[in-house]
Fold this protein.
Amino acid sequence: MLRIVMNALRTGVVTTRYPAEPSVPPVRFRGAPVLRPGSHLPPTAVCPAGALSERFDAGGRHVALDLARCVFCGRCAEDPWAGAITMGKDFELAARCRADMRIEVVAEDTAFVRAGPPRDPEAEAARASAEIHRVLGRSLHLRHLDAGSCNACDWELSALLNPVYDVRRLGIDFVASPRHADGVVVTGPVTRNLETAVRRTVEAVPDPRVVIAVGACAASGGIFGEGYASAGGVDRVLPVDVYIPGCPPRPEAIIFGILVAVGRLSARRPPRS
Amino acid sequence: MADTALVDALQVGAVGSVIAEAGPRPKDLTVRLGRASDLPAVVAVLIGQFSMALATVVATDETATPDGDLKVRYIFEPIAPGAPDQFVTLLVSVDPARPEVPSLTTSLPAANWHEREMQDLFGIVPVGHPDPRTLVLHDGWPRGIFPLRKAFDGARRVPVEPAEEFPHMVAEGEGVFEIPVGPIHAGIIEPGHFRFTSVGETVLHLDARLFYTHRGLEKRMEGLSPLDAFYVAERICGVCSVAHGLGYCEALEQIAGVDAPQRARLIRSIALELERLYNHVGDVGNVCAGAAFHYGTATGLRLKERLQQMNERIAGNRFLRGLVIPGGANLDLSDDLLSDLAATLRDTLSGLDDLMGRIEANPSVVDRLDDTGLLQHQAAIDLAVAGVAARASGVDRDARRDHPHGAFRDSRPPELHVVTATEGDAMARVTVRAEEVRESIRLVGELVRRLEPGPLRGAIGEPVPGGRIGISAIESPRGEAVHWLRTDAGGRVERYHLRSPSYHNWPAVALAAETAIVPDFPLVNKSFELCYSCTDR
Ligand code: SF4
């Protein structure tokens, strides 16, 4: 026992200070792709996840990126398109509606960029913690719901409880029963075999409740898409409050998304029947 | 030579024709059986006289080709010590008007799920199967619709039909309880339903129902360019991303006739070991959670986190996605990264040694693990169990040595010390895992020393050659995974099938649980540490 205590003391504090201090991802980290307007943008077929789309109008070729679908594989930023698209470092991508995750540029026009409303992570985090205090008295208890994920998002959710991220320090915890939860975090595209279980679990969470879609599959169906066995995203089955892009989102990206979600509580919909 | 002896022996057992040819790889053998009814006799020869085990079963729908049939390939591999890297495929043609094959499950228990899966997805009925319940398609899937038949449009959403309650297999008698658990569990884990029947705390029977995370990925990949389908294969399972990505690549490279350059092969093997490391280290910690030893859990999680942060520095992704790519490796290992890696692995090793010391010195943990969740050696063989679970029950199999891949395909492959134990209990699985961590760290050192400057990628031109088959077996953190890929005439994916190690290991968990008490199930389960997603696909 004494040895365990000594060892714990020797190890010291390993916990991150995110979001109070920013997290800087490593050099090779692939965050949100950055599309350069007015450049030679790749054909949309380059993207294996179907995240790129295009349309033509008088202004030229519009290329749009759907961050909810993107699996951050980096293929669109490889030669010969390396100049047109680069993999950025931004991972704080959570948004409240699908449209906010669309970034559109025009191949021939450097001026045209359309994206979701600008985000301000700091203000968002501050507002979120104020909300946690006001509505839930400091704590947000979430129930995890695997709706057919590849388990990468699930492991990142469990990483939130490891000594490095330790989300309990932010008043966030994961609970065993939906009855004890203020909301659910859903991973996976909602498989046919889990659809009933997903609906029933969410219905068991008392209103008001938040539904957070974690990762590309939950946010949009991701690379798996829609098919005989997959609904193609959580919002095909239930209303979603916050989408967290990533394949999988790194733990800080999930923390960011959960904090965004809590801010939503003041604007909750009236209880559903 | 050996092949002639094998074919002769098969001929003795068969009534119909037995036609053998080399393939899919030059060293493999494909045997066409004129009569499917010969299967049980021929399989008995393979598993008896030639000590082979079932590697995988692949069904295909070839009704639109000149053959106009369904085909089933039963693929075996020799498992005797020192056996060659070979796959023996038994190929039978099935009449679509009367899609039936004799069931092998009674004499070859490992065939159980394979047969139920092809019944669900292809409508090929294993006649005489002792347990023909549905497996992959759950309640409400209409009868007579088979999603992996070519005529079925994979994008189609099929309406849910009213269904009876699934007939769980339970024990009955006075004082017997049924305990339903799942599919949604209390922790952050994947979904599956476990139906225990118990008397008091003693488990009489466990019926595990999986395939909740079935996403139809094999169908999803059909018709894609094999280069695009790679990104799906890499995402079948999070914690096996490297293994499954690599297995797909090696099968594709066989078809394309492209060999990954030597530096890329080394980087692939290093990636595979890094994947094994973060999995094994985390798994040792998770077993501590099952035994309520929280210091151990936290230590395991901390060590795992350190490794995953290293992964992100190497690959830009904490699960090493994006490192392996068809044709080679997508990212190089710079000297800076290598010294960073060396320091990380040094700390991992001392951290693990310390953790194992604490576990072994803690009687309350050891007592929970010893003799818990026994898997007998013979059961491990019968079920074709893979990986740590097999090795902890004395089965000396490791695909890195038995089906060389990555750097092990070199003419002078790195040395590999395969760790085994004989006890077959949870403690054995934990100690085998810990030993394998030490061996992996040593192996990464050896692989890094072999790195020479050179190209990272061989080009795979499109379209890739049509009508060819690639097969590969990769030692993932959970054991041998077998990949089977075939291209259509236009060089697109015609059929891809993954048999993950967990697919063969889940039935072993149910067996091992029957030697335990209900409260020990989490411990038994965690000592096997299987994936649902690569089982369910
Ligand atoms: S990085 Fe995203 S947008 Fe680019 S190809 Fe990959 S999935 Fe598509």
Remarks:
- Confidence is low (pLDDT under 50) at residues 264-273 of chain A.
